[in-house]
């Protein structure tokens, strides 16, 4: 078995993914079948956010990936220039 | 057919089926809760796939079989090699 921080990080990731999956599944799949008078609807945002939030997060991720690639490429070019 | 072509085919088929059902082009009168579940379905599948990937990575990191003795031995061998090469003049 892995030790120390490895175990903590791994189990943390697993827990986060399970929480997100459960909340999202209840939101998208189960809520439409629950009576709109039920108290559980109080804990969930309006349905449109179920698509808007993952979309926004995905775009942010793409932004970070693009910025990282730009940064690495610029650093590479400077190194090549110095070598010349 | 290449794997990419297969994946694109499958995506195109499922995507068009979903679009046809969501827009109502097939003239089916789906019950309201079913329509409510149907239209965010692509986003849901993407999020579910992402959660599965994250969870699998986390689980495998947590259950990876460490070999502490081998790790310590390797570290000491690295120190030895560094000292040896440093003596022979190689600079790190």
Secondary structure elements and their pairing?
The complex is a heterodimer of chains A (84) and B (92).
Chain A: H1 4-30, H2 49-83
Chain B: H1 3-23, H2 32-38, H3 41-62, H4 68-87
Domain unit count of chain B: 2
Write down how many β-strands of chain B occur, each being a DSSP E stretch of 2 or more residues. 0
Strand content of chain A: under 5%
Catalogue the unreliable spans of chain B. Answer: none
As a percent range, the share of helical residues of chain B equals over 70%
SSE ordering of chain B = HHHH
Number of strands of chain A: 0
> How are helices and strands ordered from N to C of chain A?
HH
Quaternary status: heterodimer
Which two protein chains have the largest interface (Cβ within 8 Å of the partner's Cβ), and how many residues from each?
A-B, 29 and 27 residues
Largest sheet descriptor of chain A: none
Shape of chain A: elongated
Query: How many structurally independent domains of chain A?
Result: 2
Termini Cα gap of chain B = 50 Å
